[in-house]
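Per-record layout

source: Chanos chanos
name: Ribitol-5-phosphate xylosyltransferase 1 isoform X3
length: 434
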Amino acid sequence: MRILRKKIAIVLFLAYVVFSLYAAYNVFFGKKVISRTHRVVKKGSVGTGSQSFDREEWNPWEEEERAESILLQKRRHAFRSYQEQIAKSRPKRYKVQILGKAAIGLYLWEHILEGPLNPSDSTGQWREGETQSGKINFSFYTGPAVVQGHVPLDTDSMVLVLNGREQQKILYSTQWLQYVHTLVQAHSVSHVAVVLLGSEQCTNDWILPYLKREGGFVDLLFLVYDSPWVNDKDVFQWPLGVATYRNFPVVMPNTQMVSSPRPYLCNFLGTVYKNSSRETLMGILKQHDLEKECVTSAREKWLPQETADTLRQYQMALAQSDLTLCPVGVNTECYRVYEACAYGSVPVVEDVLTQGACEAGRNSPLRLLKDAGAPFIFLKRWDELPAVLEKEKKMTQAEKTERRMKLLEWYGGFRQQMKDKFTEVLEEAFFKMS
């Protein structure tokens, strides 16, 4: 056992001696190799001739960090390129601001463009809304509190809705045009269109100097009634619409409105002027004992405002009649035509020209509606009405339902057509899109 221990001790001693000699050789005679992970060069300066160079600390992860930095830059560049590609493919949008300073502005906004209004209360002093059509974002401002100099201007493209029916309205409209002109001169506004409730006799010469073709600043004019100025280049015809100034609402068709039987053949609620065709109409209804089959209510004096009761009675008459009688007033085109369409009651229109300077062309009067294929009943004289009503009595409920549905679909399509046309004309004239 003692001998074995001695041998082990000798072996361990010899191994220690060999390892010590190997270590001494490497220290004193071996080639020095500096590991990357342990190499540190102290900063100092070494002169060579007249020049000296600073030696920086060596970063062992320098190459890896450089590679990661290059990779990160490539990823950022790829992401920016992707964002730019998305922006290019996204359709460009434009802004147009509408200032409604006439009641027909509500027909344009709520019935044609189908835009919301806040607050919804019609008595609100300041009402506004936003909507989109085509590539245009429309904003709309209306109400008594919308005054010159106090409207937020968020675009250089503007539509002004004005009333030019009578002298007092023309004076007010002129003030707004002059205000917008100052904005154009200050380069705050570049493009201007006007939607104008024109004269019922089509005498609108007061606005001519404001048109760009006459040296003014108004690019486009959308004009109510059959004006001879309409050329579909810078002057376009616009529908009269419903009487929004009397709070006539946006009517949403429903199944009951379309298919339910209506208790009355026709209706006429309105002002009857002396020696007018309306007086003739009332006489014919009485003469042929049709007053019981038609809802009628005549008044001798025109009232600009409806009460809640009279508006409800009028709407009920439209909703409960198959036909709505539309005699001419100062102009053939009247609110009643559009209001009847909203309730699916077929307008029976007195198709005669009224006095004035309106166009007397092939499709006049009601040129805009006739060109759109309005499914109305047109009469030249009211003595044709009894035959129309006799034919009406013979129609089945299915036939009336189908006709009513076609009228409602036509009116919805007509408003969409006007929306598209209004948008496209602005896009082309304001933003050179075609």
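summary: The chain is about 40% helix and 20% strand. The chain has two domains: 94-238, 245-417.
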